[in-house]
Amino acid sequence: MDTKQPFVITISRELGSGGRTIGRKLAAQLNVRYSDKNLIKDLMEKFKLSTWEIERIKGQKKNWLSDFLEAVAPVPNSGAYIGFEPIRGNHWNNAQVKVDEIYEAEAQILRGIAEENSCVIAGRSGFFVLKGHPNKLDIFIQAPLEQRVERVMKKQGLSEKEAREVIAAVDESRENYVRRCAGVSRYDTRNYDLVLNVGEMSDDDAVACILKYIKYISR
Q1: Of 101, 124, 153, 190, which residue is least crowded by CB atoms under 10 Å?
Q2: What is the DSSP string of 107-169?
């Protein structure tokens, strides 16, 4: 990966591994936009974007996504993560919107984000959606189950039993989603350039490790 050119880093992660926080901190260190499911969901909800609507906007306005991103998630110019208020309510009728339609809408938004500028993208099958991108690094973040359970308990205020149930459900859901949409297992290490077990690391340690790896492969 050439960091002197526009690049994309995708981060897939296990629930409770800290992957989202690591991705956010990595983006801040690299001074690039950070995107995860909250940004994608908020973009789709705020602008009521279906696959058809995205195509309609793209046809009318060349820089359709640029204006949206600058409004809700501008690129930080000081290495800080710029957040925004989550949008309440749900404009999607889950009984009517098919998984494939949601995937395609998300995929189009991700491709648009990747074309805008350098960025870090967490989740949303970024490793597959952006397959073939000319300057991309795919990372998978994992952690021992006990550590994941402890983190989910703390973050979500759950009992140990509840945390284990949530992790099992999310693991199964994400695997099914990736298998259906990408046709591969998210646990197949061949999907990624770097697989990082953060069991013995803090979030900052993990970011430092990734930055060293980027520096090494960018020589």
Answers
A1: 190
A2: HHHHHHHHHHS-EEEESTTHHHHTTT-TTEEEEEEE--HHHHHHHHHHHHT--HHHHHHHHHH
Residue 34's identity, in one-letter code, is: Y
With 80 as the cut, is the pLDDT of residue 156 above it? yes
Query: Which whole-number Å values give the CA distances from 14 to 90, 96, 142, 158, 169, in the listed order?
Result: 25, 29, 5, 18, 12
What DSSP line would sit under 12-69, residue for residue? EE-TTTTHHHHHHHHHHHHT-EEE-HHHHHHHHHHTT--HHHHHHHHHH-TTHHHHHH
How many residues are present in the chain?
Answer: 219
174, HSE (Cβ side, Cα atoms, 13 Å): 17
Rounded-to-integer distance, Cα 29 and Cα 205, Å? 13
Q: Is 164 left (phi over 0), alpha (psi -120 to 50) or beta?
A: alpha
Residue with more model confidence, 198 or 176: 198
Alpha-carbon gap, residue 183 to 181, rounded angstroms: 6
pTM for this predicted structure: 0.75
- Kindly report the number of other CB atoms within 10 A of residue 92's CB atom: 15
